[in-house]
Amino acid sequence: MTQDKNNGNGHPNPDVKPGDVRRHFGAEEKLNILEEVEACKRGEVGAVLRRHGIYSSYLTRWRRARDRGELDGLGGKNVGRNARCPKSLRKSETCSRR
Hints:
Order of helices and strands: HHH
Distance between the termini: 49 Å
Strand content: under 5%
Structural class: mainly alpha
Mean pLDDT: 77
Low-confidence stretches: none
Shape: flat
């Protein structure tokens, strides 16, 4: 049975909660969860995952990001558009396109 927002007749499906929103974890929260998981004994990780409502694949991604320094707050990817070079510097090596 699929859980569509509408059950085929235009009425909302009562099994689907309206307004489900994707959860966002900040860098500090990710690091705290990773510390909690790494302190677990064998067989306890599942309980931590259920308590936070996350999948084990999140831990893999977060560990890799931590190892690359992306969860440090200052490191990681720059987000947003790249600034355009001023016309005076466009032909110099500092503003060359990749």
